[in-house]
Write a structure and sequence with these properties.
Elements lengths: L2 E4 L12 H10 L4 E7 L2 E6 H17 L7 E5 L4 H12 L3 E5 L5 H11 L3 E4 L2 H13 L6 E4 L8 H7 L5 H8 L7 E6 L9 E5 H14 L9 E4 L6 H13 L2 E4 L6 H8 L3 E4 L1 H17 L3 H24 L6 H21 L6 E4 L6 H9 L4 E7 L4 E5 L17 E5 L4 E6 L5 E2 L5 H4 E2 L2 E10 L5 E6 L4 E2 L5 E2 L2 H8 L4 E7 L6 E7 L1 H4 L8 E2 L5 E3 L3 H15 L8 E9 L15 H7 L1 H7 L2
Parallel strand pairs: 2-11, 4-5, 4-6, 6-7, 10-11, 10-12, 12-13, 13-14, 25-28
Antiparallel strand pairs: 1-16, 2-3, 8-9, 9-18, 14-15, 16-17, 17-20, 19-20, 20-21, 22-23, 24-25, 26-27, 27-28
Length: 603
């Protein structure tokens, strides 16, 4: 199969722009709780009507502050309720939203503000607002100022709201209705893993098409009596898309700025649905293994894991074939481990999570099967900024681990020349802010994702790596490193695995140590590579452990794809020159900074 399409489930008729999603929800259920907002250690409810009132008040402040139709408004803040208010308020004022990651460097902020032509900016803190003001000073044009979500600071959102009290409801409504489906809604800058960030222009049609179709496809998950916790960065289109889907469908939302507090909060918020990156699932599983080890139950836990994986396989077979052979031994083991481990692990996640959506990186099939087997199915999906978040996704009742599912409603996936994944449909953008990038991004009306993949006989997409990450050795072998790297990264000690070997006689690798594990490694800062922030790690016990990890990964791939030598390194994963805001490693930068370590692998 080289192409598959999923027909749309929702019509966009009757919607002028994204703001109509909130208008429709406010009309249908004004008193329904839309958000839970943390306030002095407690969570207070915010109804749809109260949220809409805050949005209108801030939108009037934007208008009074000089914002015109089509003006870009930047938002640079951690994930929090006020982000949602500012996002919708900008659209109510007829503006275009430009999200900026709160961790962006001053030079990155300057570049985005200048390239997008930002007129007004909102910062999460006074420090963010100061960065934005500095960016205005370096950019051409007249800026309208930078404001902060920090209520105790000067130039707060409350001050901006106060400026808008003279703006009439009629003027606001005219602004709200000014954008059409084909007008820009946001300019989102790519993370820059393979080059400089590019401004992706997404329209109101892109958002409406994705929100309405995904809500229809996942109506059993995204529902009025459900709730979720958003802790992914709202500067990322996935989190914003999820927020709009929940808002339009009535699913209650709570925001967390610090992902490290998520587990401690789940018992209070008790979500029915979560969106995570694979690393979170790996850490949950690892933490459970460590607790079992502390109690001397390592061997028992290993049997519990294998049982859950087998149970997950069985569940998938039942979905696929309608039945599965009876296995009394498996059923008895599953019942035992349900009592010992599974229900307690579900309780750690709040006890009500029905499904988890995993995205942002490849998820190991066994991790997916483990969570499925212990009672929390994982829906793996795939998408890019240019596809307004999800392009494909597994569906309830049709989950196939190891795949990212079929195209979502209204979208088409084609496998192009060389195995590149191509996309077309309602969520696919029309072009970059700089049109000079467009010619290379499209072929025959399809967007070139830059990812390699194939379609199985059921139309599920299986990802196989990045086009630009392909390695050609001196022996002429073409290697896609993703499978090997993903297998090594499943080890909790490894944050990133980078296979190298372009033009070399054999493959080697750089293994980047997980920063949370660095403190326990005695040789973590023993030697620096050429004065850079890359440090080689010299710890025999660590190396012995990782050799077993590398050997296991080698067993999964062909002989020509196996890694002969590796070096363990410690890197500053807070460095935005080395890591993107979405925590993806910039491969070319790593290889450049660790050039001495790479050379030593071939000495």
């Amino acid at each position: 199969m080289i192409e598959t399409t999923t027909p749309p489930l929702a019509a966009l008729d009757g919607y002028g722009n994204v703001t109509d999603l909130l208008i429709a929800r406010e009309s249908a259920a004004p008193d329904h709780v839309a958000f839970e907002v943390e306030d002095a250690g407690t969570w207070r409810p915010v109804t749809t009507r109260a949220f809409a009132d805050e949005v209108r008040a801030l939108a009037k402040g934007f208008i009074a502050g000089g914002v015109q139709v089509g003006d870009p408004i930047a938002i640079m803040a951690p994930t929090r309720y006020e982000w949602a208010v500012a996002d919708l308020a900008a659209w109510f004022a007829g503006a275009v939203v430009v999200p900026i990651y709160e961790t962006s460097s001053p030079s990155q902020v300057d570049a985005i503000v200048a390239d997008a032509g930002v007129r007004l900016a909102i910062g999460g803190t006074a420090e963010h607002a100061a960065l934005l003001r500095d960016a205005f000073a370096h950019a051409p044009g007249d800026a309208l100022g930078a404001w902060t979500m920090d209520a105790a600071a000067s130039d707060s959102l409350a001050d901006l709201v106060a400026h808008g009290t003279e703006v009439s409801d009629d003027e606001l409504e005219a602004r709200r209705a000014s954008a059409t489906q084909d007008d820009p809604a946001t300019i989102v800058y790519t993370s820059g893993t393979t080059g400089e960030p590019k401004g992706v222009v997404l329209t109101h049609r892109n958002f409406l098409g994705q929100v309405l179709n995904i809500a229809a496809a996942y109506r059993d998950i995204v529902r009025e009596d459900g709730n979720t916790v958003i802790f992914l960065p709202l500067a990322h289109v996935l989190a914003r898309g999820l927020q709009l889907i929940c808002l339009a469908s009535g699913m209650r939302i709570a925001h967390l700025a610090d992902p490290s507090t998520v587990v401690a909060t789940l018992d209070t918020l008790r979500p029915t649905f979560l969106v995570v990156v694979p690393r979170v699932l790996q850490k949950i599983q690892t933490a459970a293994a460590e607790k079992a080890a502390d109690k001397g139950l390592t061997r028992v836990w290993e049997h519990a894991v294998s049982t859950a994986i087998a149970w997950g396989h069985r569940a998938e077979r039942i979905e696929r074939d309608g039945r599965a052979p009876k296995d009394l031994g498996l059923a008895l083991r599953h019942r035992l481990f349900e009592a010992l481990f599974y229900r307690r692990l579900r309780a750690v996640m709040g006890g009500r999570v029905g499904y988890i959506l995993s995205g942002g990186a490849a998820l190991d099939a066994d991790v997916s099967l483990f969570f499925r087997g212990m009672g929390v199915p994982v829906i793996e999906g795939y998408g890019l900024t240019e596809t307004t978040a999800p392009l494909t996704g597994n569906l309830p009742g049709r989950i196939t681990s190891g795949t990212v599912g079929p195209p979502l409603p209204g979208l088409t996936v084609r496998i192009g020349e060389g195995g590149e994944v191509l996309a077309r449909g309602v969520g696919v953008f029309r072009g970059y802010r700089d049109p000079s990038h467009d010619a290379a991004a499209f072929v025959d009306g399809f967007f070139r994702t830059g990812d390699l993949g194939r379609l199985d006989d059921r139309g599920n997409l299986i990802l196989e790596g990045r086009v630009k990450d392909v390695i050609v050795t001196s022996n002429g072998k073409t290697i896609v490193p993703t499978r090997w790297e993903s297998a090594v990264e499943a080890d909790p000690l490894v944050s990133h695995a980078v296979m190298v070997g372009e033009g070399k006689p054999y493959l080697s690798a750089l293994l980047v140590l997980d920063p949370e594990q660095a403190a326990s490694v005695s040789g973590a800062s023993s030697s620096s590579d050429g004065g850079t922030d890359i440090h080689e790690v010299d710890d025999p016990a660590l190396r012995e452990h990782l050799q077993r990890t590398v050997d296991a990964a080698n067993a999964l791939v062909a002989r020509s794809e196996q890694v002969r030598r590796f070096t363990v390194i410690l890197a500053d994963l807070e460095d935005r020159g080395l890591v993107t805001p979405t925590m993806k490693l910039k491969r070319s930068v790593v290889l450049d900074r660790a050039s001495d370590a790479v050379a030593a692998l071939y000495a």
